[in-house]
Amino acid sequence: MALQNQEFLELTIPLDKLSAEDKETVTAFNRRFPPHDAYLETSGHLVVLKLKQLDFGRLEEFFHIQPTRLSKAVFEAVAQIKSYNIRGSKRIYANYGAERKVKDRKQKEQKRDKIYYAKDHSFSPANVAPPPEFENKILCGDSLELLKELPDNCVDLIFTSPPYNFGLDYQEQDDDHYWQDYFAQLFSIFAECIRVLKFGGRIAVNVQPLFSDYIPTHHIISNYFLSQKMLWKGEILWEKNNYNCKYTAWGSWKSPSSPYLKYTWEFIEVFCKGSLKKEGSQKNADITAAEFKDWVTAKWSIAPERKMKEFGHPAMFPEELAKRVIKLFSFRGDFVLDPFNGVGTTTFVAQQLGRRYLGIDIAEQYCTAARKRLQKED
Ligand SMILES: C[S@@+](CC[C@H](N)C(=O)[O-])C[C@H]1O[C@@H](n2cnc3c(N)ncnc32)[C@H](O)[C@@H]1O
Known about the structure:
This protein is of the alpha/beta class and 378 residues long. The longest helix has 18 residues, at 179-196. It is built from 12 helices and 15 strands. The protein has an 8-stranded mixed beta sheet, with helices on both faces. A 4-stranded antiparallel beta sheet has the order 1-2-4-3. The protein has helices at 20-32, 56-65, 69-79, 105-112, 143-146, 179-196, 217-227, 289-295, 308-311, 319-329, 345-352, 364-377; strands at residues 2-4, 9-14, 38-43, 46-51, 53-54, 85-87, 90-92, 137-140, 155-160, 197-207, 231-239, 265-272, 299-301, 335-338, 356-361. Strand 3 (38-43) and strand 4 (46-51) form a beta hairpin. The chain is elongated and about 75 Å long. Helix 2 (56-65) packs antiparallel against helix 3 (69-79), helix 10 crosses helix 11 and helix 11 (345-352) packs parallel to helix 12. The protein folds into 2 domains: 2-100, no CATH class; 128-377, Vaccinia Virus protein VP39 (Rossmann fold, 3-Layer(aba) Sandwich), CATH 3.40.50. 31% of the residues lie in helices and 21% in strands.
């Protein structure tokens, strides 16, 4: 049983009898960890762990060095505590919320009108299965047209990276439109995406703003979804660690008149339709505890895709990015769509992870590469 007191969380570890080995473990534990972090107390046949904060790695080490039944019981008791804060290398178990405790949180949330921007949406909760003829397919064509063939509310997750109007050399298309035309076209495709999403379905859009044109694409796209009464789930910062210093455009070098800001990251904007919660059976969740803990901290360090030349595509995202989005936001068996599928990173990873998929791209050459990539796995 865990009791929260002023300073320490108390975990009682019942033992039928306190053996000499248990007593040695208590002494070794109290020697290893500073008493203001954690200590063990004995009381009759009970051992009580007083826990404030711990370096969990050190606890694991302790259990390996001292593999007794008591160290195992202590390790397991601490491992099953799922709620803690992190400061430096330590997990904080006691009173970590105290400094940001808000009195009457629920009432205050109600008063503030939580998620006011999505009130009075008209999304239907009636979800349907995807038509079998669209399952596990790569379709070549304009998403604006092809998505119209899908019924409302049939897609669990959309993960995509649209062309960003940078002037890249894509096959069979221009990537340098007037910004207004570009956004108008993009939003008409996103409108279809919202329509085909299930109630509770998610859309995650990888956005790389063109900072040199001072177009905050990630904000413009997010504002569009908000205007459509989609719920903001959050923003993931994809740190690519590729400090792109090839250009020398610093703006006003050594002068505050107009410095040019540089970015080593891209964004993933995540929105939900109708509900932040998604239906699905826990037995179909395939994300591990370690992945979950790691990935909900929304700054992901992933190297950019290195095989773009091999695939003949100028703007692929890496498989690891698709893997994290798919595992974090969908269940096994879900239907995953990428309406700007390129050479099929989303669909390839979806297949590997046991999801059903649909990938659409306007360029035949990219669709052929995406299909080949899927076949290799069969
Ligand atoms: C940034 S790339 C996506 C790359 C992809 N994530 C990958 O890893 O291969 C954008 C893709 O959108 C496609 N595209 C552009 N306009 C489209 C449209 N109207 N319908 C379908 N695909 C389109 C382009 O051909 C391009 O491959």
